[in-house]
Amino acid sequence: MKEKVLIIYAHPNPKSLNHAILEAVTSALIARGAEARVRDLYAMRFDPVLRADELADRHKLSPDIAEAQADVSWADTLIFIYPIWWTDRPAILKGWFDRVFTNGFAFSTKGGWRGLLNGRKAIVLQTAGGSEEELKKMMQPAMDRVMKEGTFGFVGITDVTIKTFYSVVSQSEAERQRILEEVTAIIR
Q: Which domains occur in the chain, in start order?
C-alpha cells in the first residue's frame, strides 16, 4: 500500500528556497512511490482567522476546513514547509492549525484530554534567516518544543522530525543545493 503524504506549504514567494524545498520533497516522494497531496496555503488564499461561530459550533465545518480535515484523515505523514518569522511559523500556518486541528477531530476533551491523530508522522522543514548560533541561543529549543509537544503531541502525533535550515538569506547557490540534497535524503 502506498504511503499517503500531505504537504502543507506556507510561503508566499514561488522563487523562495522554501518553494525549492517543496519541489525537492515532492520529487523525492514520487521517486519512492508515495502518493502526495500539496496544499499551498498562500495560493489557496487560506483564511487563517478562527471566528466565533466556528468556536461555538465545531460540528458545523466550513467547506475549506472539512476538506483540510479530510486531507489530514487520509494522510499517513504530514509534512510542513515554512519560514520562521518572528520565532514562529507564519500566521497563515498557525491559523491552519487553529481551524483544522479541532476538538472532536484532532483531539478530544471528553473524559480527559487525548489526541486523536495517533499513528501519523510529522516532518517539519523550516528555514531561518538567522544563524544556527543565534537561533539556538535565542529560541530554537522553545520553538521545537512548541511544535513537538504543544502542537503535534497534543493531537497524538509523537513521531516528529524537525529540520531547520539556517542563514538562508545569505546562502550561496552551492549551499542552497546542499540543502536541497539534504531535504531529498530526509524524505528518502
A: 4-187 (3.40.50.360)
